[in-house]
Task: structure prediction
Amino acid sequence: MYFKQIIFDVDDTLIDFADTENFALHSLFNAHQWELTDEIQRQYHAYNQGLWRQLENGTLTYQELSEMVFHNFLKDTFNIEVNGLAVMDEYRSYFSRAYKLLPGVEDTLRFAQKQNLELTILTNGETFMQRHRLELAGIKDYFDLIVTSEEAGYSKPDSRIFDYFFARTKFGPEDTVFFGDGLQSDILGAENYGFSSIWYNHRHRKNNMNLHPLFEVTTYPQFVKLLKNNFQK
Result:
């Protein structure tokens, strides 16, 4: 089995999402002198993830999510009324400054590039912010194509974002494998569209969606081993 193209997710696949969220949230709350305990941060994370699941299910738009996150969370937590979009814009300005790579990312990209694999990105997020973070991290130039949900008008796992993506790349789904951490966005999206995926399960989550990635790895060296063996164990 051999693929010609790899699609990478960004957040928590290439760039450490937990580190990014921690930096952005502390920066935002410090700027406004809002209390941020470990428990409040856990509550925010759970609330935010729940809204992203709704986005991926198609029951919430990106605009609605942007308006709701901080408006609702700060109202429920501190009884504070804020302009949700304005606070989200501020949060994203901090978010765009954090770009810590997960262990092994750059070595893997360098190796995959030497194998003449087409390296691409498909990410749920804003175009400027994601491109900026990849540039700050020093890995943007590894990728031949970068597609965001903002640009496409749809979010993973919606099949229309894959239509948009494959209309812009030289290889089709049969020559492509998706490498990502998100079961509900990356792995489900690829499976529904009919092409292969590798689940990067570095957070050691359970596959509770009965999905069937081609492989599951927990480290980048495990992924490199698959690359060396032409995607055979």
Remarks:
- The chain has a mean pLDDT of 96.
- The first strand starts at residue 5 and ends at 8.
